[in-house]
Design a protein that fits this description.
This protein is an alpha+beta fold. The protein has twelve helices and 13 strands. Helix 6 packs across helix 7.
Length: 336
Amino acid sequence: MTDLLIPFPELHDTLMRVLVKEGFAEDAAFRCAELFAKTDLDGVRSHGVERFGRFLSYIRQEMVFPDRKPVLLSKSGFFERWDGQLGPGNLNAQNAMNRAMALSSENGIGCVALAFTNHWMRGGSYGWQAVEQGKIGICFTNTMPNMPAWDAKEPRLGNNPLVIAIPRASGPVVLDMAMSQFAYGKLSRLAAAGEKASFPAGFDGQGKLTQDPSTVLQHQSALPIGLWKGAGLSLMIDLLAALLSGGNSVSDIGSKPLESGLSQVFIALDPKVLGLEAWFEEKAEAIITDYLGAEALDGRSVFYPGQQTLRTRKKNLELGIPVAKDTWAQIINELK
């Protein structure tokens, strides 16, 4: 697959112009395009512009509504419930994390449960959003059924991504992970490139482990992280997201032809308001220093979650963001 190197301003501006043409208000188009472009800027290609065409198709099928914004449903102290009204998932998520951070500035902790929203694209975006404001960020979402319960033949679980982000002066620690061993975006990229996964990625039609991403995509049979433990964690995330928001569960989402109407939760904690400053930075530094001090296997290196992101961001700002030639051509064609 041939890549082009696109400067960040050009990528952002192009995506924004497509969104305006699609019916977005200019401010919403700016922020939505920025979230897509920053995803590729940080090297998370499976959840950035590669998904832009699908995002447009959902708009055209009236599964995503560009002009809708979240509406407050209820409030109790540091906890709020919002209805995403099937608006753009990344904008809804950005708004929800902003609101959770505002609540944490008042109370030390803020929690926003969001019902009836859409795919948030790169979940890590909202973890970085939190740490850039000095907050701890935790968020999770349910999805369509795309992972089997342990020992089950059919998918009844979502791969339900979880994000945990810790601010740190010398580099934030940002974990962004699905409950499947490989995210479906990663599997799609591997399949398009004709490559196998580096570890078993899921099950084939006979319930046997396979490294073939196309087989896993066909059967929606991703392997849970930690085997039965990952399956259990996926179930708990679905329960929390649906119960706290009052929105759809994985099974509800699976009853529709396309993935829409998701439930999500966003939590922010402010170390300053919580009185953690006396030890927060020193303790975080000690933990990461010890972690990185582990002897690596021959030819390997030890990294903490998010460590490579800032390096990738700097490189892509200097050299341009890699975008598949065919994908870029499709985006440009949207402006004709």
